[in-house]
Structure formats: structure tokens, C-alpha cells
Amino acid sequence: MNDTPKHILQKQFEIVMARPLSVRISEIFDLTELSRQIISNRIREKFPDISEIELKIELFKTFYRFDFDKETLEKIAVNMRDWLENQAKNSKT
To answer: How many domains does the chain have?
Structure first.
């Protein structure tokens, strides 16, 4: 739904753009991390025993579900799982 008048949207844009670039970038990172935490929590609620590796994969699938078809997304997930498991093994040695 977009019921905000155009002149109000323009004013909001001007206010945001008047802030220093470093502040805007920091806020983008903060919002991204917040969304990552919210989605991670939702995944953990749905799958309470999920491993950290599987959580990362599910998080990736959630964020990129509209960017890849299901087959490609699953291929990426398999490769991610292999890479993450390899990293976990290598960090133990």
C-alpha cells in the first residue's frame, strides 16, 4: 500500500539525503543487521534445533528467494553447506 502523498515522500527523501553519507551507510548496515536478526529468529522459532550452518543457508535462501529459481537456489545451498562444513572442519584443526 502506498498512500503517502508525493510531496511528503519528496520531503522524506530530502531529509534523508541531507544527512552525511557515512550516517546513511551506517543506518543501512544497522537495518540490514536488524532484518537478518529478525529473520534468523523466525527461522529458529520454526526449527528450534537448527545448526548454525543450516541457519546460514536458510537465511541465504530467504534473502535471495526472488533472485534465483528454486533449482539454482538449491545448488547454491548445497555448495554453501559444503564450504561451511569445510570451514568448520579446518577451524578445528
So the answer is: 2
Buried b (16+ CB within 10 A) or exposed e, 52-64: eeeebbbeebeee
Which H/E stretch holds residue 25? Answer: helix 21-46
Strand ranges for 13-90 from DSSP E? none
Phi, psi dihedrals of residue 66, rounded to the nearest 5°: -100, -5
Residue 25 structural domain: 1-48
Q: What pLDDT, in 10s, does the model give residues 30-73?
A: 999 999 999 999 999 999 999 999 999 999 999 999 999 999 99
Are the C-beta atoms of residues 17 and 25 closer than 8 Å to each other? no
